[in-house]
Amino acid sequence: MTDGAQPRATAPRSTYRGRFAPSPTGPLHAGSLLSALGSWLLARSAGGQWLVRIEDVDRTREVAGAAAAQLSALHAFGLHPDAPVVHQSQRGPRYQQALQKLLDAGLAFECHCSRGQLAAVGGIHRRCLARSNRRDPAIRFRVADNSRISFTDRIRGTVQQDVDREVGDFVIRRSDGCWAYQLAVVVDDAAQGITEVVRGADLIGSTARQILLQRGLGLPTPRYAHLPVLLDAAGKKLSKSERAHPLDPSDPVPALRSAWRMLGQDLACLGDAADVETLLDRAVANFEPGRIPAQPARSEPFAASHKR
Ligand code: GLU
User: Model pTM greater than 0.85?
Assistant: First the structure.
Protein backbone atom coordinates (compact mmCIF):
# COMPACT_ATOMS: atom_id res chain seq x y z
CA MET A 1 0.00 0.00 0.00
CA THR A 2 1.09 3.57 -0.51
CA ASP A 3 0.99 6.81 1.45
CA GLY A 4 1.22 5.24 4.88
CA ALA A 5 -1.90 3.07 4.54
CA GLN A 6 -1.48 0.07 6.78
CA PRO A 7 -3.07 -3.30 6.17
CA ARG A 8 -5.49 -4.10 8.99
CA ALA A 9 -4.87 -7.20 11.02
CA THR A 10 -8.61 -7.92 11.12
CA ALA A 11 -11.59 -6.89 9.02
CA PRO A 12 -13.53 -3.91 10.43
CA ARG A 13 -16.32 -4.91 12.81
CA SER A 14 -18.76 -2.31 11.54
CA THR A 15 -19.71 -0.26 8.51
CA TYR A 16 -18.49 2.94 10.21
CA ARG A 17 -16.13 4.90 7.93
CA GLY A 18 -14.62 8.08 9.25
CA ARG A 19 -11.96 10.40 7.90
CA PHE A 20 -9.54 13.21 8.61
CA ALA A 21 -9.23 15.75 5.81
CA PRO A 22 -6.53 18.36 6.38
CA SER A 23 -5.82 21.21 3.97
CA PRO A 24 -2.07 21.45 3.33
CA THR A 25 -1.79 25.06 4.43
CA GLY A 26 0.86 24.44 7.11
CA PRO A 27 2.06 21.88 9.60
CA LEU A 28 -0.41 20.04 11.82
CA HIS A 29 -1.02 22.01 15.01
CA ALA A 30 -2.64 21.03 18.29
CA GLY A 31 -6.11 21.82 16.88
CA SER A 32 -5.60 19.54 13.89
CA LEU A 33 -4.30 16.77 16.14
CA LEU A 34 -7.48 17.08 18.20
CA SER A 35 -9.57 16.54 15.03
CA ALA A 36 -7.34 13.73 13.80
CA LEU A 37 -7.34 11.91 17.14
CA GLY A 38 -11.06 12.53 17.77
CA SER A 39 -12.08 11.19 14.36
CA TRP A 40 -9.68 8.25 14.70
CA LEU A 41 -10.96 7.33 18.18
CA LEU A 42 -14.61 7.53 17.16
CA ALA A 43 -13.87 5.26 14.18
CA ARG A 44 -11.68 2.79 16.03
CA SER A 45 -13.90 2.51 19.09
CA ALA A 46 -16.82 1.73 16.74
CA GLY A 47 -14.75 -0.98 15.03
CA GLY A 48 -14.77 1.08 11.85
CA GLN A 49 -12.31 2.35 9.28
CA TRP A 50 -10.50 5.66 9.24
CA LEU A 51 -9.32 7.37 6.05
CA VAL A 52 -7.19 10.40 5.29
CA ARG A 53 -7.79 12.87 2.48
CA ILE A 54 -5.54 15.78 1.58
CA GLU A 55 -7.78 18.72 0.65
CA ASP A 56 -5.50 20.47 -1.80
CA VAL A 57 -8.04 22.01 -4.17
CA ASP A 58 -6.96 25.54 -3.37
CA ARG A 59 -3.47 25.72 -4.82
CA THR A 60 -3.22 29.41 -3.85
CA ARG A 61 -3.29 28.54 -0.11
CA GLU A 62 -1.13 25.44 -0.32
CA VAL A 63 2.26 25.49 1.38
CA ALA A 64 4.89 23.46 -0.45
CA GLY A 65 5.75 20.29 1.45
CA ALA A 66 2.89 20.69 3.95
CA ALA A 67 0.92 17.64 2.77
CA ALA A 68 3.93 15.34 3.09
CA ALA A 69 4.74 16.81 6.51
CA GLN A 70 1.14 16.31 7.68
CA LEU A 71 1.16 12.68 6.55
CA SER A 72 4.45 11.93 8.21
CA ALA A 73 3.23 13.64 11.42
CA LEU A 74 0.08 11.47 11.42
CA HIS A 75 2.34 8.45 11.06
CA ALA A 76 4.47 9.58 14.00
CA PHE A 77 1.32 10.05 16.09
CA GLY A 78 0.31 6.46 15.30
CA LEU A 79 -2.75 7.44 13.26
CA HIS A 80 -2.57 5.19 10.21
CA PRO A 81 -5.26 5.29 7.51
CA ASP A 82 -6.93 2.10 6.32
CA ALA A 83 -6.75 2.97 2.61
CA PRO A 84 -4.39 4.92 0.37
CA VAL A 85 -4.57 8.67 0.96
CA VAL A 86 -6.77 10.56 -1.50
CA HIS A 87 -5.57 13.93 -2.86
CA GLN A 88 -8.30 16.28 -4.03
CA SER A 89 -5.98 17.84 -6.61
CA GLN A 90 -6.25 14.54 -8.55
CA ARG A 91 -10.03 14.49 -8.58
CA GLY A 92 -11.04 17.37 -10.87
CA PRO A 93 -12.99 15.15 -13.29
CA ARG A 94 -15.21 13.88 -10.46
CA TYR A 95 -16.00 17.44 -9.36
CA GLN A 96 -16.67 18.42 -12.97
CA GLN A 97 -19.17 15.55 -13.30
CA ALA A 98 -20.99 16.64 -10.16
CA LEU A 99 -21.01 20.25 -11.32
CA GLN A 100 -22.49 19.26 -14.67
CA LYS A 101 -25.19 17.27 -12.93
CA LEU A 102 -26.16 20.32 -10.88
CA LEU A 103 -26.08 22.60 -13.94
CA ASP A 104 -28.23 20.16 -15.93
CA ALA A 105 -30.75 20.01 -13.10
CA GLY A 106 -30.93 23.80 -12.92
CA LEU A 107 -29.47 23.69 -9.40
CA ALA A 108 -26.33 25.65 -10.31
CA PHE A 109 -25.71 28.74 -12.41
CA GLU A 110 -22.96 31.04 -13.65
CA CYS A 111 -22.69 34.15 -11.54
CA HIS A 112 -21.19 37.34 -12.93
CA CYS A 113 -21.62 39.46 -9.80
CA SER A 114 -18.62 41.40 -8.54
CA ARG A 115 -17.44 41.46 -4.94
CA GLY A 116 -18.64 45.02 -4.63
CA GLN A 117 -22.16 44.10 -5.75
CA LEU A 118 -22.25 41.26 -3.26
CA ALA A 119 -20.88 43.42 -0.44
CA ALA A 120 -23.77 45.80 -1.03
CA VAL A 121 -26.23 43.00 -0.22
CA GLY A 122 -24.33 41.82 2.86
CA GLY A 123 -22.44 39.16 0.90
CA ILE A 124 -25.58 37.03 0.59
CA HIS A 125 -26.40 36.15 -3.00
CA ARG A 126 -30.10 35.71 -3.82
CA ARG A 127 -30.16 36.91 -7.41
CA CYS A 128 -27.56 38.12 -9.88
CA LEU A 129 -26.94 41.85 -9.81
CA ALA A 130 -24.36 42.04 -12.60
CA ARG A 131 -25.29 44.04 -15.71
CA SER A 132 -22.54 42.61 -17.85
CA ASN A 133 -20.83 39.27 -18.13
CA ARG A 134 -17.40 38.57 -16.60
CA ARG A 135 -14.94 36.45 -18.51
CA ASP A 136 -14.44 34.35 -15.38
CA PRO A 137 -17.85 33.74 -13.78
CA ALA A 138 -18.08 31.74 -10.59
CA ILE A 139 -20.59 28.92 -10.44
CA ARG A 140 -23.03 28.96 -7.55
CA PHE A 141 -25.44 26.45 -6.11
CA ARG A 142 -28.97 27.81 -6.16
CA VAL A 143 -30.49 27.81 -2.68
CA ALA A 144 -34.29 27.76 -2.78
CA ASP A 145 -36.31 30.06 -0.54
CA ASN A 146 -37.11 28.59 2.87
CA SER A 147 -34.11 26.23 2.78
CA ARG A 148 -34.01 25.52 6.49
CA ILE A 149 -31.67 22.62 7.18
CA SER A 150 -31.66 20.84 10.48
CA PHE A 151 -29.34 18.02 11.50
CA THR A 152 -28.39 16.21 14.66
CA ASP A 153 -24.79 16.70 15.62
CA ARG A 154 -23.49 13.87 17.77
CA ILE A 155 -21.80 16.31 20.16
CA ARG A 156 -23.93 19.44 19.89
CA GLY A 157 -27.41 18.07 19.35
CA THR A 158 -29.82 19.77 16.95
CA VAL A 159 -28.26 22.36 14.67
CA GLN A 160 -30.35 24.45 12.32
CA GLN A 161 -29.53 26.94 9.58
CA ASP A 162 -31.71 28.95 7.18
CA VAL A 163 -29.31 28.63 4.29
CA ASP A 164 -31.18 31.01 1.98
CA ARG A 165 -31.20 33.84 4.54
CA GLU A 166 -27.93 33.16 6.36
CA VAL A 167 -25.69 32.04 3.47
CA GLY A 168 -27.44 32.53 0.13
CA ASP A 169 -26.50 30.91 -3.17
CA PHE A 170 -22.97 29.65 -2.59
CA VAL A 171 -19.95 29.18 -4.81
CA ILE A 172 -19.12 25.65 -5.94
CA ARG A 173 -16.53 26.63 -8.53
CA ARG A 174 -14.63 29.84 -8.00
CA SER A 175 -14.05 32.48 -10.62
CA ASP A 176 -10.35 31.49 -10.69
CA GLY A 177 -11.38 27.96 -11.68
CA CYS A 178 -10.64 26.39 -8.27
CA TRP A 179 -13.17 23.89 -6.96
CA ALA A 180 -14.86 25.12 -3.83
CA TYR A 181 -14.38 23.17 -0.61
CA GLN A 182 -18.15 22.60 -0.28
CA LEU A 183 -18.44 20.72 -3.56
CA ALA A 184 -15.20 18.76 -3.26
CA VAL A 185 -15.91 17.60 0.29
CA VAL A 186 -19.41 16.36 -0.59
CA VAL A 187 -18.27 14.49 -3.70
CA ASP A 188 -15.35 12.88 -1.85
CA ASP A 189 -17.18 11.97 1.35
CA ALA A 190 -19.70 10.10 -0.81
CA ALA A 191 -17.07 8.52 -3.08
CA GLN A 192 -15.11 7.31 -0.05
CA GLY A 193 -18.26 5.93 1.59
CA ILE A 194 -17.86 8.12 4.67
CA THR A 195 -20.61 7.43 7.21
CA GLU A 196 -19.41 9.82 9.95
CA VAL A 197 -17.92 13.24 9.36
CA VAL A 198 -15.98 14.21 12.48
CA ARG A 199 -14.19 17.56 12.29
CA GLY A 200 -13.62 20.84 14.09
CA ALA A 201 -16.59 22.97 15.11
CA ASP A 202 -15.22 25.83 12.99
CA LEU A 203 -16.78 23.94 10.05
CA ILE A 204 -20.22 23.48 11.57
CA GLY A 205 -21.55 26.42 9.55
CA SER A 206 -20.70 24.55 6.32
CA THR A 207 -22.67 21.43 7.13
CA ALA A 208 -26.09 22.69 6.04
CA ARG A 209 -24.64 23.71 2.65
CA GLN A 210 -23.11 20.26 2.30
CA ILE A 211 -26.44 18.61 3.10
CA LEU A 212 -28.13 20.72 0.39
CA LEU A 213 -25.47 19.64 -2.10
CA GLN A 214 -25.88 15.99 -1.10
CA ARG A 215 -29.61 16.28 -1.74
CA GLY A 216 -29.04 18.02 -5.07
CA LEU A 217 -26.63 15.31 -6.18
CA GLY A 218 -28.70 12.41 -4.84
CA LEU A 219 -25.97 11.43 -2.34
CA PRO A 220 -26.46 10.08 1.18
CA THR A 221 -26.00 12.41 4.15
CA PRO A 222 -23.48 11.06 6.68
CA ARG A 223 -23.77 11.61 10.42
CA TYR A 224 -21.90 14.61 11.81
CA ALA A 225 -19.89 15.31 14.94
CA HIS A 226 -18.15 18.65 15.43
CA LEU A 227 -15.27 18.58 17.89
CA PRO A 228 -14.40 21.54 20.12
CA VAL A 229 -12.25 24.22 18.56
CA LEU A 230 -9.03 24.92 20.44
CA LEU A 231 -8.49 28.42 21.71
CA ASP A 232 -5.21 29.95 22.74
CA ALA A 233 -4.71 31.86 26.00
CA ALA A 234 -6.11 35.01 24.37
CA GLY A 235 -9.28 33.15 23.31
CA LYS A 236 -8.35 33.11 19.62
CA LYS A 237 -8.86 30.00 17.49
CA LEU A 238 -5.61 28.13 17.68
CA SER A 239 -5.00 27.67 13.98
CA LYS A 240 -4.58 31.44 13.72
CA SER A 241 -1.68 31.31 16.13
CA GLU A 242 -0.34 27.85 15.51
CA ARG A 243 3.22 28.90 16.10
CA ALA A 244 2.36 29.16 19.78
CA HIS A 245 1.64 25.44 19.96
CA PRO A 246 3.73 23.60 17.39
CA LEU A 247 3.49 19.83 17.32
CA ASP A 248 6.71 17.92 17.60
CA PRO A 249 6.29 14.62 15.73
CA SER A 250 9.56 13.40 17.24
CA ASP A 251 7.96 13.56 20.70
CA PRO A 252 4.33 12.52 20.10
CA VAL A 253 3.27 11.28 23.54
CA PRO A 254 2.79 14.65 25.32
CA ALA A 255 0.71 16.06 22.46
CA LEU A 256 -1.44 12.92 22.32
CA ARG A 257 -2.06 13.09 26.08
CA SER A 258 -3.01 16.72 25.78
CA ALA A 259 -5.40 16.04 22.85
CA TRP A 260 -6.95 13.16 24.83
CA ARG A 261 -7.61 15.49 27.75
CA MET A 262 -9.05 18.19 25.52
CA LEU A 263 -11.45 15.59 24.13
CA GLY A 264 -12.81 15.49 27.68
CA GLN A 265 -11.27 12.11 28.44
CA ASP A 266 -9.78 10.93 31.72
CA LEU A 267 -5.98 11.17 31.72
CA ALA A 268 -5.75 8.51 34.41
CA CYS A 269 -6.92 5.92 31.83
CA LEU A 270 -3.68 6.37 29.93
CA GLY A 271 -1.63 5.57 33.03
CA ASP A 272 2.07 5.86 32.38
CA ALA A 273 1.86 4.91 28.69
CA ALA A 274 5.18 6.10 27.37
CA ASP A 275 4.96 5.01 23.74
CA VAL A 276 2.41 5.83 21.06
CA GLU A 277 1.15 2.30 20.55
CA THR A 278 0.44 1.64 24.24
CA LEU A 279 -1.14 5.05 24.63
CA LEU A 280 -3.47 4.60 21.64
CA ASP A 281 -4.44 1.06 22.70
CA ARG A 282 -5.45 2.38 26.11
CA ALA A 283 -7.19 5.34 24.53
CA VAL A 284 -9.37 3.14 22.30
CA ALA A 285 -10.20 0.81 25.21
CA ASN A 286 -11.21 3.70 27.51
CA PHE A 287 -12.69 6.22 25.09
CA GLU A 288 -16.05 7.69 26.15
CA PRO A 289 -17.56 9.70 23.25
CA GLY A 290 -20.20 11.16 25.59
CA ARG A 291 -17.47 13.08 27.43
CA ILE A 292 -16.41 15.14 24.39
CA PRO A 293 -17.24 18.74 25.30
CA ALA A 294 -19.43 20.91 23.10
CA GLN A 295 -17.64 24.09 24.22
CA PRO A 296 -14.33 25.34 22.84
CA ALA A 297 -11.31 23.97 24.71
CA ARG A 298 -8.42 26.03 26.02
CA SER A 299 -5.13 24.81 24.73
CA GLU A 300 -2.08 24.78 26.95
CA PRO A 301 1.47 24.28 25.76
CA PHE A 302 2.29 20.66 26.54
CA ALA A 303 5.42 19.74 28.41
CA ALA A 304 7.95 17.89 26.33
CA SER A 305 8.40 14.30 27.27
CA HIS A 306 11.19 13.56 29.72
CA LYS A 307 12.21 10.67 27.48
CA ARG A 308 13.91 12.70 24.76
N1 GLU B 1 -9.93 20.59 4.86
C2 GLU B 1 -10.66 21.18 5.96
C3 GLU B 1 -9.69 21.83 6.92
O4 GLU B 1 -8.52 21.49 6.95
C5 GLU B 1 -11.47 20.16 6.72
C6 GLU B 1 -12.61 19.68 5.93
C7 GLU B 1 -13.55 18.72 6.62
O8 GLU B 1 -13.13 18.02 7.55
O9 GLU B 1 -14.67 18.65 6.18
O10 GLU B 1 -10.11 22.69 7.67
Answer: yes
